[in-house]
TrEMBL record:
CDD domains the record matches: HINT_subgroup
InterPro entries registered for this protein in UniProt: HINT, Histidine_triad_CS, Histidine_triad_HIT, HIT-like, HIT-like_sf
Location of the HIT domain: 9-117
Classification via SUPFAM superfamilies: HIT-like
Protein name as catalogued: HIT family protein
Motif placement: Histidine triad motif: 102-106
Length: 143
């Protein structure tokens, strides 16, 4: 448990000051049910180090904490055999709807006909070959 913050909800959950419905825990991460339960089994995984979001992960952090994603996803799928898919998402920053400023991964089990909709938009009609290449090059040069 590294660099935990006093007033962070998820740090409080890690310290046991706030109860949670834990489904998996080890020295690196804690996974527990999201109180919203978009669908049964909706789980959050958090690092036991206070990291605000993906923009703050080091390569070492990513290797240490994100390795558990497949294991948690598969446990949820096995627990609910009628799962037909799963949204594995993270919101990074307020404009991306991050509410708790401690990195967390959502595992939202999906069931055929569950009615859950994650809203996106298709802007393909605003792009041509030149614009796609321009955007791709802008990102490529940052690696």
């Amino acid at each position: 448990m590294e660099n935990l913050v006093e007033d962070c909800l998820f740090c409080k959950i890690i310290r046991g000051e706030v109860p949670s419905y834990t489904v998996f825990e080890n020295d690196d991460v804690k996974a527990f049910l999201d109180i919203s339960q978009v669908n049964p089994g909706h789980t959050l995984m958090i690092p036991k180090k206070h990291i605000v979001n993906m923009f703050d992960y080091t390569d070492e952090d990513a290797k240490r904490y994100l390795q558990y994603i497949p294991e948690i996803a598969n446990a949820i799928k096995k627990a609910f055999p009628n799962v037909t898919g799963m949204n594995i998402t993270t919101n990074n920053g307020k404009s991306a709807n991050q509410v708790v400023m401690h990195s967390h991964i959502h595992f939202i089990p999906r069931f055929e006909g569950d009615g859950v909709q994650l809203v996106t938009r298709n802007n393909a009609d605003q792009y041509d070959d030149t614009k796609y290449k321009e955007v791709a090059e802008k990102i490529k040069k940052e690696f």
